[in-house]
Design a protein that fits this description.
With 112 residues, this protein is mostly helical. It is built from four helices and no strands. The chain is elongated and about 60 Å long. The relative contact order is 0.15. Pfam families: DUF2069. Keywords: Membrane, Transmembrane, Transmembrane helix. This is DUF2069 domain-containing protein. InterPro entries: DUF2069_membrane.
Length: 112
């Protein structure tokens, strides 16, 4: 699996999580537009090859991670959703960093 597809898969999984989470909330449309739409758009951008998709997703993943940790501590009824959000945010950061880590590893291998 390529890093782009890995990133897109993580983003789509996060969007699906937010859709499921929004179905349990009174503010369905607000949850869908604020939480579910950005990962979907970034996933599509990553699949289309936008070179800033990984960076943008990693920056937003910091917010998703913080939100997930906050919900883990404050809402006992939503702990499974919050834990899944936290793990997916970490996977998004990992997926966004893969191209840079691979480029650095290749740079070390090539003799100058």
């Amino acid at each position: 699996m390529t890093p782009r597809r890995y990133l897109a898969l993580c983003l789509f999984a996060l969007a699906a999580l937010f859709v499921a989470w929004s179905l349990h909330n009174n503010h369905l449309w607000a949850g869908l537009t604020v939480f579910a739409l950005p990962p979907v758009l970034l996933g599509l951008a990553a699949l289309r090859g936008w070179h800033r998709a990984g960076f943008t997703a990693a920056m937003l993943a910091l917010l998703w991670f913080s939100h997930g940790v906050m919900m883990l501590w404050s809402e006992p009824a939503l702990r499974l959703f919050a834990l899944a959000e936290t793990v997916l945010a970490l996977l998004i950061v990992h997926a966004a960093c893969l191209p840079g880590m691979r480029a650095r590893r290749e740079q070390r291998r090539t003799p100058e």
